[in-house]
């Protein structure tokens, strides 16, 4: 099973929207993965066995894990591109 971390500033509003969109995407593409939300400030402690980080906030640190900027799920602009990037990492 793949593991995805969805991070935002407060781990409530934008990460919930993004996490729900990612769950729908994964289900539609038959990808077995867990999706967990957290704050950007928690990434260092949660990045252990993670396959992908999707963040709606700016992240400059290298976690040795692919990081995809997921603001498209909030703005609606570029969501298909973001979906394709996520699928590319997890397939």
From TrEMBL:
Gene3D superfamilies: 3.40.50.2300
InterPro entries: PTS_EIIB-like_sf, PTS_EIIB_2, PTS_EIIB_2/3
Key words, A-Z: Transferase
Molecular functions (GO terms): protein-N(PI)-phosphohistidine-sugar phosphotransferase activity
PROSITE patterns named among the record's database cross-references: PTS_EIIB_TYPE_2
Pfam families named among the record's database cross-references: PTS_IIB
Domain PTS EIIB type-2: 2-91
Gene Ontology biological process terms from the UniProt entry: phosphoenolpyruvate-dependent sugar phosphotransferase system
Domain of life of the native organism: Bacteria
Tagged with keyword rRNA-binding: no
The protein, known as: PTS galactitol transporter subunit IIB
Organism this protein belongs to: Staphylococcus equorum
């Amino acid at each position: 099973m793949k593991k995805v971390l969805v991070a935002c500033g407060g781990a409530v509003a934008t990460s919930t929207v993004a996490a729900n969109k990612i769950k729908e995407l994964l289900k539609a593409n038959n990808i077995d993965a867990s999706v967990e939300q957290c704050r950007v400030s928690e990434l260092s402690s949660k990045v252990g066995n993670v396959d992908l980080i999707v963040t709606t906030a700016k992240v400059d640190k290298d976690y040795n894990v692919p990081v995809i900027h997921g603001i498209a799920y909030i703005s609606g602009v570029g969501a298909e591109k973001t979906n394709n990037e996520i699928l590319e990492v997890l397939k």
